[in-house]
TrEMBL record:
GO biological process: defense response; defense response to fungus; killing of cells of another organism
Protein name: Predicted protein
Keyword terms of this UniProt record: Antimicrobial, Disulfide bond, Fungicide, Plant defense, Signal
Lineage: superkingdom: Eukaryota
Gene field: LOC123398519
Species the sequence originates in: Hordeum vulgare subsp. vulgare
Family label: Belongs to the thaumatin family.
SS bonds (residue pairs): 30-225, 72-82, 87-93, 138-214, 143-197, 151-161, 165-174, 175-184
Signal peptide: 1-21
Entry keyword annotation includes Disulfide bond: yes
Length: 226
């Protein structure tokens, strides 16, 4: 009886955990090839214009990020490089991408805790992106502006637009000591990104207008060039 009860409880817990797992649906609407990358779950792949793919994310995954790489060239073994978003010269990423890269970020809730999700330009911008829960009334985030075309010359690099923090590396732009959350605010550079993509993170402490929540278990859709 005790063994049967334990088996039932374990089965119930596994069933509950499974309902927290999500699928992130990827779609490339860009007129060029994008190589999606994901960390710590999802690795990487290739999406030609109009192609779709999906990433299965385990429940409770924290600190997840997905981004699009551009200008990539990989050999049959999956070795190569990308102009933007490169992750150590491999197709299936096992680490974050090299800036500039538009990031879709998420932390999946468990139990009664919600999911947290955002689009971040803190590492700069390379590909327009939208990121939204598939069902329900949770907020759909979009950063569809052509930031690359309007990028300040001092932040412009091949295929993208670096953030001032990545390019200049000073506390004012990176919110590093001696600055604190209460003393580090927006700058002209972060306002440039924020003006074009109001829902996206533009600097490290841009939380109030850039972090969104959705009930645990929601699936998501990420569209490149929405």
């Amino acid at each position: 009886m005790a063994s049967s009860s334990l088996s039932f409880i374990l089965s119930l817990l596994l069933a509950i955990a499974a309902t927290d797992a999500i699928t992130v649906h990827l779609l490339n609407k860009c007129p060029y090839t994008v190589w999606p990358a994901a960390f710590p779950v999802g690795g990487g792949s290739r999406l030609d214009p109009g192609q779709a793919a999906a990433i299965q994310v385990p429940p409770g995954t924290a600190g997840g990020r997905i981004w699009g790489r551009t200008g990539c060239n990989f050999d049959a073994s999956g070795r190569g490089s990308c102009a933007t978003g490169d992750c150590g010269g491999v197709l299936a990423c096992a680490a974050g991408g090299k800036p500039p890269a538009t990031l879709a970020e998420y932390t999946l809730g468990t139990g009664g805790s919600p999911d947290f999700y955002d689009i971040s330009l803190v590492d700069g911008f390379n590909v327009p992106m939208s990121f939204r829960p598939v069902a329900g009334s949770c907020h759909a985030i979009s950063c569809a502006a052509d930031i690359n075309a309007k990028c300040p010359p001092e932040l412009r690099v091949e295929g993208g637009c670096l953030s001032a923090c990545v390019k200049l590396g000073v506390p004012r732009y990176c919110c590093t000591p001696p600055l604190t959350p209460s003393t580090c605010g927006p700058t002209d550079y972060s306002r440039f990104f924020k003006g074009l993509c109001p829902d996206a993170y533009s600097y490290a402490y841009d939380d109030k207008s850039s972090t969104f929540t959705c009930p645990v278990g929601s699936d998501y859709q990420l569209v490149f060039c929405p």
